[in-house]
Amino acid sequence: MQADKTYVYQSIGNCLVDHNVHTLFGLMGDANLFMVDDYVRSCNGTFVPVAFEGSAVLMALAYSKFAQTVGVATVTHGPGFTNCITALTEGVRGNTSMVLLCGDTPVIAPQNLQNIDQRELTKATGAAFIQMRSPETVTEDIARAFYQTQVERRPVVLNMPADFMWEEVEHKKVVYPVFNNPALVLEGDNLDDAIGMIASAKRPVILAGGGAIGAEKSLIRLADRLEAPLATTLKAKAMFNDHPYNMDIFGTLSTPAAYDAIDKSDCVAAFGASLHHFTTDRGALMKGKRIIQINDTLSEIGKNYHPDAALVGDAGLTADNIVKWLDDADIPPSGFTKELDSDTLTAHPPATPKTTKDGTIDFVLALEQLDAALPKNRILTTDGGRFMTEVWCRVAAPDAKSFIATTNFGSIGIGLQHAIGACFAAPDRPVVLFTGDGGFMMAGINEFNTAVRLNQDLITIVCNDSAYGAEHVQFVDKNIDPSLSQFEWPSFAMVATALGGQGIEVETPAQLDIAINAIKNRDRPLLIELKLDPDDVPRMRI
Question: For the chain, which has fewer Cβ within 10 Å, the N-terminal or C-terminal residue?
Protein backbone atom coordinates (compact mmCIF):
# COMPACT_ATOMS: atom_id res chain seq x y z
CA MET A 1 0.00 0.00 0.00
CA GLN A 2 1.33 3.45 -0.92
CA ALA A 3 2.16 5.84 1.91
CA ASP A 4 -0.54 8.33 0.89
CA LYS A 5 -3.17 5.63 0.43
CA THR A 6 -5.47 3.91 2.88
CA TYR A 7 -8.06 1.18 2.71
CA VAL A 8 -11.78 1.95 2.63
CA TYR A 9 -12.37 0.38 6.03
CA GLN A 10 -9.75 2.70 7.48
CA SER A 11 -11.19 5.71 5.69
CA ILE A 12 -14.61 4.99 7.25
CA GLY A 13 -13.07 5.07 10.72
CA ASN A 14 -11.32 8.33 9.87
CA CYS A 15 -14.65 9.75 8.69
CA LEU A 16 -16.14 9.00 12.10
CA VAL A 17 -13.30 10.92 13.70
CA ASP A 18 -13.86 13.77 11.24
CA HIS A 19 -17.48 13.93 12.43
CA ASN A 20 -16.50 13.84 16.14
CA VAL A 21 -17.94 10.37 16.72
CA HIS A 22 -16.43 9.06 19.95
CA THR A 23 -18.78 6.14 20.60
CA LEU A 24 -19.92 3.49 18.13
CA PHE A 25 -22.61 0.92 18.99
CA GLY A 26 -22.75 -2.28 17.02
CA LEU A 27 -22.33 -5.94 16.33
CA MET A 28 -19.54 -7.15 14.09
CA GLY A 29 -19.88 -9.34 11.02
CA ASP A 30 -17.80 -9.99 7.95
CA ALA A 31 -18.98 -6.76 6.28
CA ASN A 32 -17.93 -4.37 9.06
CA LEU A 33 -15.40 -6.11 11.33
CA PHE A 34 -12.28 -4.52 9.85
CA MET A 35 -13.81 -1.05 10.05
CA VAL A 36 -14.75 -1.57 13.71
CA ASP A 37 -11.32 -2.95 14.57
CA ASP A 38 -9.55 0.01 12.97
CA TYR A 39 -11.89 2.52 14.61
CA VAL A 40 -10.94 1.12 18.02
CA ARG A 41 -7.22 0.50 17.46
CA SER A 42 -6.22 3.38 15.20
CA CYS A 43 -8.86 6.01 15.93
CA ASN A 44 -9.09 5.39 19.70
CA GLY A 45 -12.87 5.20 19.43
CA THR A 46 -15.13 3.47 21.95
CA PHE A 47 -16.98 0.49 20.54
CA VAL A 48 -20.00 -0.82 22.45
CA PRO A 49 -20.57 -4.47 21.44
CA VAL A 50 -24.20 -5.51 21.74
CA ALA A 51 -25.85 -8.92 21.80
CA PHE A 52 -28.50 -8.19 19.16
CA GLU A 53 -28.20 -5.89 16.16
CA GLY A 54 -31.36 -3.88 16.80
CA SER A 55 -29.98 -3.00 20.22
CA ALA A 56 -27.14 -1.08 18.59
CA VAL A 57 -29.61 1.17 16.79
CA LEU A 58 -31.69 1.71 19.94
CA MET A 59 -28.61 2.59 21.99
CA ALA A 60 -27.50 5.04 19.32
CA LEU A 61 -30.95 6.66 19.34
CA ALA A 62 -30.79 7.25 23.09
CA TYR A 63 -27.19 8.42 22.83
CA SER A 64 -28.30 10.98 20.25
CA LYS A 65 -30.94 12.39 22.59
CA PHE A 66 -28.87 12.57 25.75
CA ALA A 67 -25.52 13.57 24.20
CA GLN A 68 -27.18 16.03 21.82
CA THR A 69 -25.23 14.69 18.86
CA VAL A 70 -25.63 12.19 16.04
CA GLY A 71 -25.69 8.64 17.36
CA VAL A 72 -23.90 6.04 15.23
CA ALA A 73 -24.36 2.28 15.01
CA THR A 74 -22.99 -0.43 12.75
CA VAL A 75 -24.22 -3.89 11.77
CA THR A 76 -23.45 -6.42 9.09
CA HIS A 77 -25.54 -7.56 6.14
CA GLY A 78 -28.53 -9.88 5.80
CA PRO A 79 -30.16 -10.75 9.11
CA GLY A 80 -27.83 -8.26 10.77
CA PHE A 81 -29.82 -5.54 9.03
CA THR A 82 -33.28 -7.11 9.17
CA ASN A 83 -32.90 -7.32 12.96
CA CYS A 84 -32.85 -3.50 13.00
CA ILE A 85 -36.24 -2.79 11.41
CA THR A 86 -38.22 -2.16 14.62
CA ALA A 87 -35.45 0.02 16.03
CA LEU A 88 -35.22 2.11 12.88
CA THR A 89 -38.98 2.64 12.88
CA GLU A 90 -38.83 3.79 16.51
CA GLY A 91 -36.12 6.28 15.53
CA VAL A 92 -38.04 7.61 12.54
CA ARG A 93 -41.20 8.19 14.54
CA GLY A 94 -39.19 9.83 17.29
CA ASN A 95 -37.57 12.26 14.81
CA THR A 96 -34.13 11.17 15.95
CA SER A 97 -30.86 11.82 14.14
CA MET A 98 -28.62 8.75 13.88
CA VAL A 99 -26.53 6.99 11.24
CA LEU A 100 -26.50 3.22 10.75
CA LEU A 101 -23.35 2.04 8.98
CA CYS A 102 -24.71 -1.13 7.45
CA GLY A 103 -22.45 -3.61 5.74
CA ASP A 104 -23.80 -5.25 2.60
CA THR A 105 -23.01 -8.38 0.65
CA PRO A 106 -20.41 -7.93 -2.11
CA VAL A 107 -21.68 -6.24 -5.24
CA ILE A 108 -20.00 -8.95 -7.29
CA ALA A 109 -21.86 -11.74 -5.43
CA PRO A 110 -25.61 -11.24 -6.00
CA GLN A 111 -26.26 -14.88 -5.07
CA ASN A 112 -24.81 -14.45 -1.59
CA LEU A 113 -27.00 -16.28 0.92
CA GLN A 114 -27.48 -13.13 3.02
CA ASN A 115 -28.24 -10.75 0.17
CA ILE A 116 -31.39 -8.65 0.61
CA ASP A 117 -32.62 -5.36 -0.80
CA GLN A 118 -31.66 -2.97 1.99
CA ARG A 119 -33.04 0.07 0.19
CA GLU A 120 -36.58 -1.33 0.05
CA LEU A 121 -36.51 -2.49 3.67
CA THR A 122 -35.23 0.90 4.79
CA LYS A 123 -38.00 2.60 2.85
CA ALA A 124 -40.61 0.64 4.82
CA THR A 125 -39.31 2.05 8.12
CA GLY A 126 -39.34 5.65 6.91
CA ALA A 127 -35.59 6.03 7.38
CA ALA A 128 -33.40 7.56 4.68
CA PHE A 129 -31.07 5.38 2.60
CA ILE A 130 -27.70 6.31 1.12
CA GLN A 131 -25.75 3.96 -1.09
CA MET A 132 -21.97 4.07 -0.81
CA ARG A 133 -21.38 4.61 -4.49
CA SER A 134 -17.74 3.61 -4.85
CA PRO A 135 -14.49 3.39 -2.86
CA GLU A 136 -13.55 6.83 -4.17
CA THR A 137 -16.72 8.48 -2.81
CA VAL A 138 -16.60 7.08 0.74
CA THR A 139 -15.94 10.38 2.51
CA GLU A 140 -18.56 12.24 0.50
CA ASP A 141 -21.20 9.55 1.04
CA ILE A 142 -20.62 9.45 4.78
CA ALA A 143 -20.70 13.25 4.97
CA ARG A 144 -24.04 13.20 3.14
CA ALA A 145 -25.40 10.72 5.69
CA PHE A 146 -24.41 12.89 8.64
CA TYR A 147 -25.81 16.01 6.99
CA GLN A 148 -29.08 14.40 5.95
CA THR A 149 -29.84 12.87 9.34
CA GLN A 150 -29.46 16.25 11.05
CA VAL A 151 -31.49 18.19 8.50
CA GLU A 152 -34.31 15.66 8.22
CA ARG A 153 -34.20 14.49 11.87
CA ARG A 154 -34.57 10.82 11.06
CA PRO A 155 -32.18 7.84 10.93
CA VAL A 156 -30.06 7.33 7.81
CA VAL A 157 -28.92 3.89 6.66
CA LEU A 158 -25.58 3.97 4.84
CA ASN A 159 -25.05 0.85 2.75
CA MET A 160 -21.41 -0.35 2.68
CA PRO A 161 -20.64 -3.19 0.21
CA ALA A 162 -18.19 -5.66 1.74
CA ASP A 163 -16.04 -5.82 -1.37
CA PHE A 164 -15.21 -2.11 -1.07
CA MET A 165 -13.44 -2.53 2.26
CA TRP A 166 -10.01 -3.57 0.99
CA GLU A 167 -9.89 -1.13 -1.90
CA GLU A 168 -7.19 1.52 -1.68
CA VAL A 169 -8.30 5.15 -1.57
CA GLU A 170 -6.97 8.56 -0.63
CA HIS A 171 -8.75 9.81 2.46
CA LYS A 172 -9.95 13.39 2.27
CA LYS A 173 -11.81 15.02 5.13
CA VAL A 174 -15.33 15.98 4.06
CA VAL A 175 -17.80 17.47 6.54
CA TYR A 176 -20.90 19.35 5.40
CA PRO A 177 -21.94 22.08 7.86
CA VAL A 178 -25.55 22.05 8.98
CA PHE A 179 -27.25 25.43 8.78
CA ASN A 180 -29.53 25.91 11.75
CA ASN A 181 -31.26 29.26 11.60
CA PRO A 182 -34.49 28.98 13.63
CA ALA A 183 -37.61 29.97 11.73
CA LEU A 184 -39.44 32.93 13.26
CA VAL A 185 -42.81 34.34 12.25
CA LEU A 186 -42.43 38.11 12.38
CA GLU A 187 -45.67 39.34 10.84
CA GLY A 188 -48.74 38.37 8.87
CA ASP A 189 -52.34 37.30 9.34
CA ASN A 190 -51.39 34.02 11.04
CA LEU A 191 -49.47 35.85 13.72
CA ASP A 192 -52.25 38.40 14.18
CA ASP A 193 -54.84 35.63 14.56
CA ALA A 194 -52.73 33.70 17.08
CA ILE A 195 -51.94 36.74 19.20
CA GLY A 196 -55.57 37.85 19.07
CA MET A 197 -56.75 34.49 20.39
CA ILE A 198 -54.15 34.43 23.14
CA ALA A 199 -54.72 38.06 24.15
CA SER A 200 -58.50 37.63 24.41
CA ALA A 201 -58.36 34.36 26.35
CA LYS A 202 -59.74 34.38 29.91
CA ARG A 203 -58.18 31.06 30.90
CA PRO A 204 -55.20 30.30 28.64
CA VAL A 205 -52.87 27.30 29.03
CA ILE A 206 -49.31 27.04 27.70
CA LEU A 207 -48.52 23.51 26.49
CA ALA A 208 -44.99 22.37 25.60
CA GLY A 209 -44.09 19.28 23.60
CA GLY A 210 -40.80 17.57 22.83
CA GLY A 211 -40.11 20.10 20.08
CA ALA A 212 -40.03 22.88 22.67
CA ILE A 213 -37.36 21.37 24.93
CA GLY A 214 -34.72 24.06 25.37
CA ALA A 215 -37.25 26.90 25.22
CA GLU A 216 -38.24 26.67 28.90
CA LYS A 217 -37.29 30.23 29.86
CA SER A 218 -39.22 31.81 27.00
CA LEU A 219 -42.33 29.71 27.63
CA ILE A 220 -42.25 30.48 31.36
CA ARG A 221 -41.92 34.18 30.52
CA LEU A 222 -45.01 33.95 28.30
CA ALA A 223 -46.98 31.97 30.89
CA ASP A 224 -46.11 34.43 33.66
CA ARG A 225 -47.02 37.35 31.41
CA LEU A 226 -50.43 35.80 30.77
CA GLU A 227 -50.83 34.38 34.31
CA ALA A 228 -51.43 31.04 32.62
CA PRO A 229 -50.52 27.55 33.92
CA LEU A 230 -47.92 25.43 32.16
CA ALA A 231 -48.26 21.82 31.01
CA THR A 232 -46.28 19.38 28.88
CA THR A 233 -46.83 16.40 26.66
CA LEU A 234 -45.32 13.11 27.82
CA LYS A 235 -42.16 13.69 25.75
CA ALA A 236 -41.50 16.97 27.57
CA LYS A 237 -42.23 15.57 31.05
CA ALA A 238 -40.46 17.49 33.84
CA MET A 239 -39.87 20.60 31.70
CA PHE A 240 -41.46 22.97 34.24
CA ASN A 241 -40.74 21.07 37.46
CA ASP A 242 -40.01 24.10 39.65
CA HIS A 243 -42.74 26.43 38.42
CA PRO A 244 -45.60 27.02 40.92
CA TYR A 245 -48.23 26.60 38.22
CA ASN A 246 -46.77 23.55 36.56
CA MET A 247 -49.56 21.09 35.75
CA ASP A 248 -47.14 18.37 34.58
CA ILE A 249 -48.46 16.09 31.82
CA PHE A 250 -51.43 17.35 29.78
CA GLY A 251 -54.14 14.88 28.77
CA THR A 252 -55.02 11.39 29.87
CA LEU A 253 -52.09 11.40 32.34
CA SER A 254 -53.14 14.66 34.05
CA THR A 255 -53.86 14.86 37.75
CA PRO A 256 -57.53 15.41 38.67
CA ALA A 257 -56.86 19.07 39.46
CA ALA A 258 -54.93 19.66 36.24
CA TYR A 259 -57.56 17.90 34.14
CA ASP A 260 -60.22 20.11 35.70
CA ALA A 261 -58.16 23.26 35.00
CA ILE A 262 -57.60 22.22 31.39
CA ASP A 263 -61.27 21.48 30.98
CA LYS A 264 -62.13 25.00 32.19
CA SER A 265 -59.60 26.72 29.96
CA ASP A 266 -60.65 28.53 26.80
CA CYS A 267 -57.34 28.62 24.90
CA VAL A 268 -54.35 26.30 24.51
CA ALA A 269 -51.13 27.56 22.97
CA ALA A 270 -49.17 24.41 22.06
CA PHE A 271 -45.45 24.81 21.38
CA GLY A 272 -43.52 21.95 19.74
CA ALA A 273 -46.36 19.46 20.25
CA SER A 274 -48.08 17.34 17.61
CA LEU A 275 -51.27 17.11 19.73
CA HIS A 276 -51.56 13.33 19.72
CA HIS A 277 -54.89 11.90 20.84
CA PHE A 278 -53.37 10.88 24.21
CA THR A 279 -52.57 14.55 24.77
CA THR A 280 -56.00 15.78 23.69
CA ASP A 281 -57.87 12.85 25.28
CA ARG A 282 -59.12 12.03 21.79
CA GLY A 283 -60.21 15.62 21.31
CA ALA A 284 -62.27 15.86 24.51
CA LEU A 285 -59.90 18.38 26.11
CA MET A 286 -59.93 20.63 23.03
CA LYS A 287 -63.69 21.19 22.90
CA GLY A 288 -64.80 24.79 23.40
CA LYS A 289 -61.25 26.13 23.16
CA ARG A 290 -59.18 28.11 20.71
CA ILE A 291 -56.11 26.04 19.79
CA ILE A 292 -52.90 27.68 18.60
CA GLN A 293 -50.16 25.35 17.40
CA ILE A 294 -46.56 26.55 17.10
CA ASN A 295 -44.06 24.17 15.51
CA ASP A 296 -40.86 24.55 13.50
CA THR A 297 -41.93 21.68 11.22
CA LEU A 298 -44.89 22.43 8.97
CA SER A 299 -45.89 18.77 8.59
CA GLU A 300 -46.45 18.49 12.37
CA ILE A 301 -49.12 21.20 12.32
CA GLY A 302 -52.57 19.69 11.97
CA LYS A 303 -51.06 16.21 11.88
CA ASN A 304 -53.24 14.88 14.71
CA TYR A 305 -55.55 17.78 15.58
CA HIS A 306 -56.36 20.75 13.39
CA PRO A 307 -55.75 24.05 15.23
CA ASP A 308 -57.60 27.35 14.94
CA ALA A 309 -54.34 29.18 14.24
CA ALA A 310 -50.81 28.01 13.50
CA LEU A 311 -47.33 29.49 13.39
CA VAL A 312 -44.33 27.84 11.77
CA GLY A 313 -41.44 28.92 13.94
CA ASP A 314 -39.00 28.22 16.73
CA ALA A 315 -40.78 27.73 20.07
CA GLY A 316 -38.62 30.04 22.16
CA LEU A 317 -38.32 32.85 19.65
CA THR A 318 -42.02 32.75 18.86
CA ALA A 319 -42.93 32.89 22.56
CA ASP A 320 -40.64 35.91 22.99
CA ASN A 321 -42.28 37.56 19.99
CA ILE A 322 -45.76 37.00 21.42
CA VAL A 323 -44.71 38.54 24.75
CA LYS A 324 -43.42 41.61 22.90
CA TRP A 325 -46.71 42.04 21.05
CA LEU A 326 -48.71 41.61 24.27
CA ASP A 327 -46.56 44.25 25.97
CA ASP A 328 -46.76 46.65 23.04
CA ALA A 329 -50.55 46.33 23.01
CA ASP A 330 -50.69 46.64 26.82
CA ILE A 331 -52.79 43.47 27.11
CA PRO A 332 -53.62 42.70 30.77
CA PRO A 333 -52.84 39.24 32.19
CA SER A 334 -55.67 36.73 32.28
CA GLY A 335 -55.55 36.04 36.01
CA PHE A 336 -56.22 32.33 35.42
CA THR A 337 -53.52 31.18 37.84
CA LYS A 338 -55.26 33.05 40.67
CA GLU A 339 -58.10 30.55 40.34
CA LEU A 340 -55.81 27.53 40.76
CA ASP A 341 -54.40 25.74 43.79
CA SER A 342 -50.75 25.17 42.90
CA ASP A 343 -50.39 22.45 45.57
CA THR A 344 -52.87 20.14 43.85
CA LEU A 345 -51.94 20.65 40.20
CA THR A 346 -49.32 17.89 40.17
CA ALA A 347 -50.76 15.72 42.94
CA HIS A 348 -51.94 12.31 41.80
CA PRO A 349 -54.13 10.40 44.27
CA PRO A 350 -51.75 8.86 46.82
CA ALA A 351 -51.40 5.14 47.28
CA THR A 352 -53.66 3.67 49.92
CA PRO A 353 -52.21 0.63 51.72
CA LYS A 354 -54.18 -2.51 51.03
CA THR A 355 -53.86 -6.25 51.37
CA THR A 356 -52.23 -7.84 48.34
CA LYS A 357 -52.15 -11.42 47.12
CA ASP A 358 -49.42 -13.54 48.75
CA GLY A 359 -46.15 -13.22 46.89
CA THR A 360 -46.95 -9.80 45.42
CA ILE A 361 -46.42 -6.17 46.37
CA ASP A 362 -48.62 -3.09 45.97
CA PHE A 363 -47.41 -1.49 42.73
CA VAL A 364 -48.41 2.14 43.36
CA LEU A 365 -47.04 2.11 46.90
CA ALA A 366 -43.77 0.62 45.65
CA LEU A 367 -43.48 3.30 42.96
CA GLU A 368 -43.90 6.08 45.50
CA GLN A 369 -41.18 4.61 47.72
CA LEU A 370 -38.85 4.02 44.79
CA ASP A 371 -39.36 7.57 43.53
CA ALA A 372 -38.13 8.87 46.88
CA ALA A 373 -35.20 6.44 47.05
CA LEU A 374 -33.80 6.55 43.52
CA PRO A 375 -30.87 8.95 42.85
CA LYS A 376 -32.14 12.49 42.35
CA ASN A 377 -29.82 13.17 39.39
CA ARG A 378 -31.13 10.14 37.54
CA ILE A 379 -31.90 9.75 33.88
CA LEU A 380 -35.31 8.08 33.70
CA THR A 381 -36.18 5.66 30.89
CA THR A 382 -39.23 3.47 30.42
CA ASP A 383 -40.06 0.52 28.21
CA GLY A 384 -43.52 -0.17 26.80
CA GLY A 385 -46.24 -1.96 28.74
CA ARG A 386 -49.35 -1.32 30.80
CA PHE A 387 -47.28 -0.54 33.91
CA MET A 388 -45.78 2.55 32.28
CA THR A 389 -48.52 5.13 32.80
CA GLU A 390 -48.28 4.88 36.59
CA VAL A 391 -44.49 5.21 36.31
CA TRP A 392 -44.82 8.35 34.17
CA CYS A 393 -47.19 9.86 36.71
CA ARG A 394 -45.43 8.86 39.94
CA VAL A 395 -41.69 8.70 39.19
CA ALA A 396 -39.99 12.02 38.63
CA ALA A 397 -37.25 13.06 36.25
CA PRO A 398 -35.03 16.04 37.08
CA ASP A 399 -35.81 17.80 33.79
CA ALA A 400 -37.15 17.12 30.30
CA LYS A 401 -33.71 16.30 28.92
CA SER A 402 -33.36 13.51 31.49
CA PHE A 403 -36.40 11.49 30.45
CA ILE A 404 -37.18 9.18 27.56
CA ALA A 405 -40.16 6.92 26.95
CA THR A 406 -39.96 4.38 24.15
CA THR A 407 -43.46 5.06 22.90
CA ASN A 408 -43.03 6.02 19.25
CA PHE A 409 -43.87 2.63 17.72
CA GLY A 410 -45.78 0.94 20.53
CA SER A 411 -43.11 -1.73 20.93
CA ILE A 412 -42.07 -3.47 24.12
CA GLY A 413 -38.59 -4.81 24.71
CA ILE A 414 -36.65 -1.71 23.62
CA GLY A 415 -36.23 0.14 26.91
CA LEU A 416 -33.08 -1.44 28.30
CA GLN A 417 -31.18 -0.68 25.10
CA HIS A 418 -32.16 2.98 25.37
CA ALA A 419 -31.00 2.94 28.99
CA ILE A 420 -27.54 1.66 28.03
CA GLY A 421 -27.28 4.30 25.32
CA ALA A 422 -28.07 6.92 27.95
CA CYS A 423 -25.36 5.46 30.22
CA PHE A 424 -22.75 6.14 27.55
CA ALA A 425 -24.11 9.61 26.77
CA ALA A 426 -24.02 10.63 30.45
CA PRO A 427 -21.43 8.39 32.15
CA ASP A 428 -21.41 10.48 35.33
CA ARG A 429 -25.12 9.96 36.02
CA PRO A 430 -27.14 6.90 37.11
CA VAL A 431 -29.73 5.64 34.63
CA VAL A 432 -33.02 4.16 35.84
CA LEU A 433 -35.13 1.88 33.67
CA PHE A 434 -38.67 0.70 34.36
CA THR A 435 -39.63 -2.28 32.22
CA GLY A 436 -42.24 -5.01 32.21
CA ASP A 437 -41.62 -8.73 32.47
CA GLY A 438 -42.62 -9.40 28.85
CA GLY A 439 -40.39 -6.66 27.47
CA PHE A 440 -37.45 -7.69 29.63
CA MET A 441 -37.82 -11.34 28.64
CA MET A 442 -38.13 -10.38 24.98
CA ALA A 443 -34.99 -8.29 24.63
CA GLY A 444 -33.74 -7.13 28.01
CA ILE A 445 -31.93 -10.14 29.43
CA ASN A 446 -29.32 -10.28 26.68
CA GLU A 447 -28.46 -6.59 26.97
CA PHE A 448 -28.51 -6.56 30.77
CA ASN A 449 -25.38 -8.63 30.44
CA THR A 450 -24.01 -5.93 28.12
CA ALA A 451 -24.48 -3.40 30.94
CA VAL A 452 -22.65 -5.77 33.29
CA ARG A 453 -19.77 -6.33 30.86
CA LEU A 454 -19.38 -2.59 30.38
CA ASN A 455 -19.84 -1.76 34.09
CA GLN A 456 -22.71 0.70 33.66
CA ASP A 457 -24.46 2.51 36.50
CA LEU A 458 -27.86 1.09 35.63
CA ILE A 459 -30.82 0.45 37.93
CA THR A 460 -33.48 -1.72 36.29
CA ILE A 461 -36.91 -2.17 37.87
CA VAL A 462 -38.81 -5.08 36.33
CA CYS A 463 -42.56 -4.77 36.93
CA ASN A 464 -43.39 -8.47 36.84
CA ASP A 465 -47.05 -9.42 36.80
CA SER A 466 -46.23 -12.69 35.00
CA ALA A 467 -48.45 -11.69 32.11
CA TYR A 468 -48.74 -9.71 28.92
CA GLY A 469 -50.80 -7.03 30.62
CA ALA A 470 -52.69 -5.45 27.73
CA GLU A 471 -53.87 -8.85 26.53
CA HIS A 472 -54.70 -9.96 30.08
CA VAL A 473 -57.01 -6.96 30.51
CA GLN A 474 -58.83 -7.66 27.26
CA PHE A 475 -59.46 -11.29 28.17
CA VAL A 476 -60.75 -10.29 31.62
CA ASP A 477 -62.99 -7.57 30.18
CA LYS A 478 -64.61 -10.14 27.87
CA ASN A 479 -64.99 -12.70 30.70
CA ILE A 480 -62.55 -15.02 28.92
CA ASP A 481 -60.01 -17.13 30.79
CA PRO A 482 -56.79 -15.02 30.68
CA SER A 483 -54.39 -17.94 31.19
CA LEU A 484 -52.99 -17.69 27.66
CA SER A 485 -51.65 -14.24 28.56
CA GLN A 486 -49.94 -15.47 31.74
CA PHE A 487 -46.44 -16.92 32.07
CA GLU A 488 -44.29 -18.58 34.67
CA TRP A 489 -41.07 -16.68 34.03
CA PRO A 490 -37.79 -17.56 35.72
CA SER A 491 -36.72 -15.35 38.62
CA PHE A 492 -35.40 -12.23 36.90
CA ALA A 493 -33.54 -11.33 40.08
CA MET A 494 -31.67 -14.64 40.01
CA VAL A 495 -30.99 -14.29 36.28
CA ALA A 496 -29.57 -10.79 36.82
CA THR A 497 -27.25 -12.12 39.50
CA ALA A 498 -26.20 -15.01 37.26
CA LEU A 499 -25.39 -12.49 34.51
CA GLY A 500 -23.01 -10.68 36.84
CA GLY A 501 -25.28 -7.98 38.23
CA GLN A 502 -27.17 -7.80 41.50
CA GLY A 503 -30.76 -9.00 41.51
CA ILE A 504 -33.32 -8.52 44.29
CA GLU A 505 -36.80 -9.99 44.29
CA VAL A 506 -39.50 -7.93 46.01
CA GLU A 507 -42.67 -9.63 47.26
CA THR A 508 -43.04 -7.88 50.63
CA PRO A 509 -42.50 -4.40 52.10
CA ALA A 510 -39.48 -5.74 53.99
CA GLN A 511 -37.88 -6.90 50.73
CA LEU A 512 -38.60 -3.49 49.20
CA ASP A 513 -36.60 -1.95 52.05
CA ILE A 514 -33.73 -4.29 51.18
CA ALA A 515 -33.93 -3.20 47.54
CA ILE A 516 -33.93 0.47 48.50
CA ASN A 517 -30.84 -0.09 50.62
CA ALA A 518 -29.20 -1.82 47.64
CA ILE A 519 -29.83 1.27 45.53
CA LYS A 520 -27.72 3.30 47.94
CA ASN A 521 -24.90 0.75 48.02
CA ARG A 522 -24.87 -0.48 44.40
CA ASP A 523 -21.52 -1.28 42.80
CA ARG A 524 -22.74 -2.95 39.59
CA PRO A 525 -25.92 -3.02 37.50
CA LEU A 526 -28.84 -3.57 39.84
CA LEU A 527 -32.15 -5.27 39.00
CA ILE A 528 -35.16 -4.98 41.29
CA GLU A 529 -37.97 -7.38 40.45
CA LEU A 530 -41.35 -6.20 41.69
CA LYS A 531 -43.69 -9.21 41.90
CA LEU A 532 -47.17 -7.96 41.00
CA ASP A 533 -50.69 -9.36 40.86
CA PRO A 534 -51.88 -9.13 37.20
CA ASP A 535 -55.39 -8.37 38.46
CA ASP A 536 -54.16 -5.48 40.63
CA VAL A 537 -51.99 -3.45 38.24
CA PRO A 538 -53.75 -0.11 37.49
CA ARG A 539 -55.22 0.31 34.03
CA MET A 540 -53.32 2.29 31.44
CA ARG A 541 -54.44 5.91 31.42
CA ILE A 542 -54.82 6.25 27.67
Answer: N
